[in-house]
Automatic annotation (TrEMBL):
Pfam families: SoxD. InterPro entries: SoxD, SoxD_sf. It comes from Roseibium aggregatum. This is Sarcosine oxidase subunit delta. One of its GO terms (biological process) is tetrahydrofolate metabolic process. One of its GO terms (molecular function) is sarcosine oxidase activity.
Length: 101
């Protein structure tokens, strides 16, 4: 079982208290009505789905209920960095290098 530390609560809890919300730092279109069906489908459904170091959005559903971001190695399931929503994405290459990837 994975243990995840909520950056808001400051406690490390089992992964069962959290839900992954997919790729982090996806910018929503400023004018969705101006997008074609193909562009809208691209925004809604297409994600990077990287093997290795990947930035994800998580929610502490059985705790504070807040969203946060995490950088996780999808191969080993190891969390490399957890940070609050709204904070800039860390350099993934540096985190991968520090983790020996």
């Amino acid at each position: 079982m994975l243990l995840i530390e909520c950056p808001y609560c400051g406690v490390e809890r089992p992964e069962l208290e959290f839900r992954c919300g997919g790729e982090a730092h996806i910018a929503r279109p400023e004018d969705p009505s101006g997008k074609t069906d193909e562009e809208w489908a691209e925004f809604l459904y297409m994600r990077t789905n990287t093997k290795g170091v990947y930035a994800e959005r998580w929610r502490h559903i059985h705790g504070c209920g807040r969203f946060f971001n995490a950088v996780r190695d999808t191969v080993s399931d190891k969390f490399l960095k957890i940070y609050k929503a709204g904070e800039p994405m860390p350099d993934l290459a540096s985190l991968a290098k520090e983790a020996g990837k």
